[in-house]
Amino acid sequence: MSFHSVANAAGVAIVTAQALKLMATLLAIRWIARHGREFSRLLRAHSDDFSEAVYWDLLDRTNARTVRPLGILEYRLQRYASAKPPLMAKSLRLARFMCFDFVSIGVASMALLYTASSPALTRYADNTLVALATAAAALIVGQLVALYAEACVSYAAMGSYGLAFHQASRYHDAASASVPYISEIKTLAGAIIYSLGSGAFILYFAASHGGDFASFQVSGTTFTGTIPDLLNCLYYSLTTFFTVETPEPTTGGARLAVTAIVTQAVCALILAMSTFTMYASSTKEPKGADAAMPAATSSAATPKAESDGRITQPVRTNRSANRTGALFWGGALFGVALTIAVRTRRSDRQRQGNGTAADQQSRSGKQADNPQGVRD
């Protein structure tokens, strides 16, 4: 088989995995919005008899199997693997990680963008591979925006994303940790690192295929020669993400690449402000009647579950669903306002800088026309 055939087949596989992962994330958002509160209540109700089998049963009872293709967080494959011999179980879990994990899909997508952009490899590529890489770049952005949206909906519905969602299979062990919100911070940090890395390769791909940036150009023709270009792209991905500086795009494709990074930055800022707002509220000590409540009353309010799993008493939480939603959306609105303020101020500085540069050029032109000056 030729390199063209292998590269195109790999590109089709990567884009297909991206599309399936995006579909699964969107379906997960719908499941969290519809069943997230019910699932978290059942999770807490089974604190005494919690196990991985109970976790899977709770997912079945909350219709998590409707999240195609493998259920929410691929739990159906995990359950199937647990019933197989150890070697087969490890193989299935490894296959899931290699083919359907955000990290592995992201790395493969970046490799596809590099293959379709690097001068050392483009002579082996064709228009089909470039089209696949363009689709992969768009799906990377769609996946990350969907990931941030999934986190936002999870916070609003369940009060947590990393702890009550991604680590729900060992929820009670994680919840008893000294700093439970470390899982939230790790999830947010991982998404930001993913955004920065993918943004660098998107800039490199755009610059290699007609995108013009005033701040940098890609010129490396060998593998080692492309390293400085990738470092430049990573720098501008970082500065654009944190709204410090952009590579000054001058063409449509370049502007689209910068817009993709800025969109992810807005989503990340909204999620970060919402996380901080809810974390700060959860660390406050209870006041009034809640602080004076006897221990016996608190234990009496602990939910009990019958043999069929139904909750016989309402579940007491640290904050009500309404308060959780209000805190989340308050942080989200603050994040939007902060983003708009930062972008507006940056635009004003750019206009002022452009005006100053124009004035300097005008004065330089006048001095060049009349080097000796005009005497009355």
From TrEMBL:
<feature type="transmembrane region" description="Helical">
    <location>
        <begin position="326"/>
        <end position="342"/>
    </location>
</feature>
<keyword id="KW-1133">Transmembrane helix</keyword>
<feature type="transmembrane region" description="Helical">
    <location>
        <begin position="6"/>
        <end position="33"/>
    </location>
</feature>
<feature type="compositionally biased region" description="Low complexity">
    <location>
        <begin position="289"/>
        <end position="304"/>
    </location>
</feature>
<feature type="transmembrane region" description="Helical">
    <location>
        <begin position="227"/>
        <end position="244"/>
    </location>
</feature>
<feature type="transmembrane region" description="Helical">
    <location>
        <begin position="188"/>
        <end position="207"/>
    </location>
</feature>
<feature type="compositionally biased region" description="Polar residues">
    <location>
        <begin position="352"/>
        <end position="370"/>
    </location>
</feature>
<keyword id="KW-0812">Transmembrane</keyword>
<protein>
    <recommendedName>
        <fullName>Ion channel</fullName>
    </recommendedName>
</protein>
<feature type="transmembrane region" description="Helical">
    <location>
        <begin position="128"/>
        <end position="149"/>
    </location>
</feature>
<keyword id="KW-0472">Membrane</keyword>
<feature type="region of interest" description="Disordered">
    <location>
        <begin position="344"/>
        <end position="376"/>
    </location>
</feature>
<feature type="transmembrane region" description="Helical">
    <location>
        <begin position="256"/>
        <end position="280"/>
    </location>
</feature>
<feature type="region of interest" description="Disordered">
    <location>
        <begin position="287"/>
        <end position="317"/>
    </location>
</feature>
<feature type="transmembrane region" description="Helical">
    <location>
        <begin position="94"/>
        <end position="116"/>
    </location>
</feature>
